[in-house]
Specification:
The protein contains 14 helices and no strands. It has helices at 3-33, 41-49, 56-90, 102-116, 122-145, 153-177, 179-190, 198-214, 219-225, 229-234, 239-261, 267-278, 283-307, 316-339. The two termini are 26 Å apart.
C-alpha cells in the first residue's frame, strides 16, 4: 500500500469513529425511550437529570431502561472486541469467541450450579459462569499447546470445536434430567439484558471495561501478528506472549459478557466484518470501531425485541441470531466465491 493510500485509510478511519460514536449515542437515546409506552427525549432528560419521585415514567426510565441500556452497551462492545481478537488470533475471518468453548463452558457451569445448588444467590451463578468460561478456554489452550506448533490457529479451532460439543452435550443431558433447572436457566440460554441487577453486575462490567482498555498496549503487536507469525517474529514481536495475552483478554471479555447476559450469538462474528467495511485494518482504529458497532447493534436488537411483539418481549439473543444468521450466510457465500 502506498503512503498516500495508507494516509487516506487512516483519515477515513478517524472520520468514521466519531460518526460511530454519534450513532451509539442515538441508539442509547432510543433504548431509553423504547417500551410499551414510548417516552420523549425531554422525558428521558428529565428522568436522568431532574427526576421526580412521584413520576412513574421517571422511575421506569431510571430503574429499568437505563440498566438494560448500560448493560447492552458493555456486553455488545465486549463481545464484538472478543470476536475481533479471535479473528486476529486464529487468522480466520469466521472465528468468534465460541470457537474456544467459552460460551459452552460458561453455560455448562451455570447448568451444573443450578442443578446442584438451586437456591444459590444470583451472584454465585454469575461467578460460576465466568469461572466456567475461563476453565474452558484454559483447557482448549492447553490442548492446542501440546505437540508441535504450540498455540497454532488450526489446533486451537479443532480443540475448541471438540470441547464445545462436549460441554453442550453435558449441559443438555443435565437439563433433560432436571426440568426445574431448565426453567431456571432459560434466560441464560436465550440471552437477555433485561432484569439484570446492576448492583450485582458491576464487578463483571468492570472486568469487561478493564479488558477493553488493556487491548490498547497490544494493538501494534496485533497489527504485526495479523500478517503472520513469521513476519511478526521478524519484526521483534514476542508472538507466544502476545497470543497468550489475547487469549486472556478474550476469556475476560466473552466470559464476563456471557455471565452477565447469557448466550448471545453472532455479535462477535458479524460486527468485526461490518467494522472492516468502514475502517482500515489497523487495530488502533478497527478495535474501537468494533466496540462502538457492537454496542450499537446489541442496543438496536434489544429495542426491536421489546417492540415487535408488544406487550411481550423477544430476548435479545434471539434477535441477534435472527439478524446475524443471514449475514453469516452472506459471508460464507462471498468467501466461497473468492476460493472458486
Amino acid at each position: 500500500m502506498s503512503v498516500a493510500a495508507a494516509s487516506g485509510a487512516a483519515l477515513k478511519g478517524r472520520s468514521a469513529l466519531p460518526a460511530l460514536g454519534l450513532l451509539l449515542l442515538a441508539a442509547m437515546l432510543v433504548s431509553l425511550m423504547a417500551g410499551a409506552q414510548w417516552s420523549t427525549p425531554a422525558a428521558v432528560w428529565q428522568a436522568l437529570f431532574h427526576p421526580s419521585e412521584l413520576s412513574v415514567e421517571d422511575l421506569l426510565i431510571r430503574t429499568t431502561r437505563l440498566p438494560r441500556t448500560l448493560l447492552a452497551v458493555v456486553v455488545g462492545a465486549g463481545l464484538a472486541v472478543a470476536g475481533a481478537l479471535m479473528q486476529t488470533l486464529t487468522r480466520n475471518p469466521l472465528a468468534s469467541p465460541g470457537i474456544v468453548g467459552i460460551n459452552a463452558g460458561a453455560m455448562f457451569a451455570v447448568v451444573v450450579l443450578v442443578s446442584m445448588f438451586p437456591q444459590a444467590a444470583l451472584w454465585a451463578w454469575y461467578g460460576g459462569a465466568l469461572l466456567g468460561a475461563a476453565l474452558a478456554a484454559l483447557l482448549v489452550w492447553a490442548l492446542a499447546m501440546r505437540g508441535q506448533s504450540p498455540g497454532g490457529p488450526l489446533r486451537l479451532v479443532l480443540a475448541g470445536a471438540a470441547l464445545t460439543a462436549l460441554f453442550n452435550a453435558f449441559s443438555q443431558a443435565l437439563l433433560v434430567i432436571d426440568q426445574q433447572g431448565l426453567d431456571t436457566v432459560l434466560f441464560w440460554l436465550a440471552g437477555a439484558v433485561s432484569g439484570r441487577p446492576l448492583s450485582q453486575l458491576w464487578p463483571l462490567m468492570a472486568v469487561t471495561l478493564l479488558a477493553l482498555v488493556a487491548c490498547w498496549p497490544l494493538m501494534r503487536s496485533m497489527n504485526a501478528l495479523g500478517t503472520g507469525e513469521a513476519m511478526a517474529r521478524s519484526l521483534g514481536v514476542p508472538v507466544h506472549r502476545v497470543q497468550t495475552a489475547m487469549v486472556v483478554l478474550v476469556v475476560a471479555l466473552a466470559g464476563a459478557c456471557v455471565a452477565m447476559a447469557g448466550n448471545i450469538a453472532f455479535v462477535g462474528l458479524v460486527v468485526p466484518h461490518m467494522a472492516r467495511r468502514l475502517l482500515p485494518s489497523d487495530h488502533r482504529l478497527w478495535l474501537p470501531g468494533c466496540a462502538l458497532l457492537g454496542a450499537t447493534l446489541l442496543l438496536l436488537a434489544d429495542v426491536v425485541g421489546r417492540c415487535v411483539l408488544l406487550p411481550r418481549e423477544i430476548p435479545v439473543g434471539v434477535m441477534t441470531a435472527l439478524i446475524g444468521a443471514p449475514l453469516f450466510i452472506v459471508m460464507l457465500r462471498r468467501q466461497g466465491r473468492r476460493h472458486d
